[in-house]
Amino acid sequence: MTMIRMTLAALAVVTPAAAFAQDGLTIRDAYVRSANSKTAAAFMVVQNDRDAECRLTGASSDAAELVELHTHSEVDGVMKMHKIEGGIAVPAGGDHALARGGDHVMLMGLAKPLSDGDTVALVLDFGDCGTRQVDAVLDNDRADGAGGHADHQSH
Ligand SMILES: [Cu+2]
């Protein structure tokens, strides 16, 4: 957090416009699922209240060796996940859900196996829109990755 705050302060000094661009971009409903000791996937909703598109161009975390933006697409009738090139667009005045079966932040080479309740700190790079830090809690029981509608009905 300290590093991010310093970065924001530096931006404010050099380019006031860029500092203003930090406003209006919100991450909510972030959580992580991990099916094995090596990999995990993070899901969330990105809300963009600005009047220009923001694009998630990358992510990083101390919890894993490699962090990539992934999505799923159908290949010969089978859903497969693959790396996203060019980032994930979040429309002006709208939101975009990173959700199961769709876009996600992929963590590979976990520093240690994760279990329910563990927190994964992610830094999300939105290019010109700045960076966002989010703490995503591991929740393998979460029923719905769409965000905002997961009411844990089974609990
Ligand atoms: Cu993936």
Task: Describe what is shown at a glance.
This protein has 155 residues and is mainly β. It has helices at 2-14, 16-20; strands at residues 25-33, 39-48, 54-56, 58-60, 64-75, 78-83, 88-90, 94-98, 104-110, 119-125, 131-138. Strand 1 (25-33) and strand 2 (39-48) form a beta hairpin.
Structure description:
There is one protein chain. By secondary structure, the chain is mainly beta. The protein has one domain (21-137): Sandwich (Immunoglobulin-like). The protein is built from 2 helices and 11 strands; from the N terminus they run ααβββββββββββ. The chain is globular. It binds copper (II) ion. Copper (II) ion binds next to β9.
Q: What's the helix and strand layout?
A:
Elements: H1 2-14, H2 16-20, E1 25-33, E2 39-48, E3 54-56, E4 58-60, E5 64-75, E6 78-83, E7 88-90, E8 94-98, E9 104-110, E10 119-125, E11 131-138
Parallel strand pairs: 1-11
Antiparallel strand pairs: 1-2, 2-8, 2-9, 3-7, 4-10, 5-6, 5-9, 10-11
The chain binds copper (II) ion.
Signal peptide: 1-21
Organism: Paracoccus fontiphilus
Protein name: Copper chaperone PCu(A)C
